[in-house]
Amino acid sequence: MNSRKSRLTCAIAALFFTLAAPAAISGPALVDLNAAGDEGRMLAAQTGRWIVTETVWSAPHARPSVTDHLVAERRMVGNMLEETLSAPSSPTVLRRDFLTFHRVEGRWQYMSFDTRAAVGIMTAQSTGPEVAGTIEVTFQPFALPTDGAVTGQMLRMRQRIIRDGADHIIKDQYFTLADGRGEEWLARRYDAVRQP
User: Fold this and answer.
1) Helix (H) or strand (E) holding 124
2) All domains of the chain, ordered by start, with CATH?
């Protein structure tokens, strides 16, 4: 009896998963989804060498710290725009990020890591397409180290990528500490100008 019931349960489960599983995409449909599309062509138009000014506000209302003449090299890796940020005349990577539009989900995907901060790999997604030259992505919450300690403070972050013409892009990062206050502030800005 138990054996018959077990076989029946397995057969029902197999039928359910067969009916519920989405059909595999192949052939021309898969090629179309992997094609660059308008978003991919827009990203490809941003390749090249850019000079970046980085401005950091360590807390709400803090005085800014500015680092200028950083160099961003942008290139396409498949449908992803990769940016590598470094100091002038230095091979050391300070920061790297990837941006792509996921055509199946209809939203932007973003990933970055900064070798200057102990925050690990940071991933983010938009809730939809670019609007009026601006892409906004929200990051998964992550821990920000405090005063060099092993323990940290949880942080929420969102980023706005603003295209101000073909040769000027601004990335604004807004932080909100998980301290019960809910105060968001502009914490970091990358202001990039393309080099001829």
Assistant:
1) strand 122-125
2) 2-194 (2.40.128.20)
